[in-house]
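The instructor's notes for this session suggest beginning with a concrete chain rather than abstract definitions. Hand out the sequence below and ask the class to guess, before any prediction is shown, which regions might be ordered.
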Amino acid sequence: MDALTLTLLLTGLLLVAALAAYAWHLWRRVWANQRAQQYAQQERQQRIGGDLNILASSLLDEQLPLIEGAIRIKVLLDNYDSTLSNDSRSQVFHVLFEATANVPTHAAWKVLDKAERRRFEKRFNELELQHKAAARIAARWLLDEGLKRPLANT
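After discussion, reveal the predicted structure:
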C-alpha cells in the first residue's frame, strides 16, 4: 500500500468513527427526549386524574352544578382516557354535554336577555331532573372503579 491509499483509508476510518460518535450522541438525545415526554405525559395524566377525582366528588357532594360538572368531567375524560370516556357508564356526561353544546358561555351568556337566560335555565333544570341520578351513579363509578383502573391510552 502506498502512503496516499493509507492516508485516505485512515481519513475514511476517522470520518466513519466521527459520524458514528455523532449518531450515538443524537440517539442519546432522542432517548432523553422520549423519557422527558413520557414523564410529562405521566404528570399530565396524574393531574387530570386528580382533577377528575375532585370534580366527581364535588358533583356527588352537590358543591358543583350538575350540568357544569358533567361538561367538565366529559372534557377531562376525553383527555384522560378515551376508553374510560366511551364506557357506557360515563355516557350520561356525553349526553349532558351534547344537550348543552348550543348554550352560550362566558361573555355571550352575559349579553343574553333575561327571557333567553330563563329558557336555558329551564332546560338545565329539565336535564338535571332527567339525568341527575345517572350522573351521580356515573360519578360514584368513576371514583370507586373507573379512575382506579390502569389507563388504556396514555
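Then share the key points. The two ends are 59 Å apart (CA to CA). The chain has a mean pLDDT of 93.
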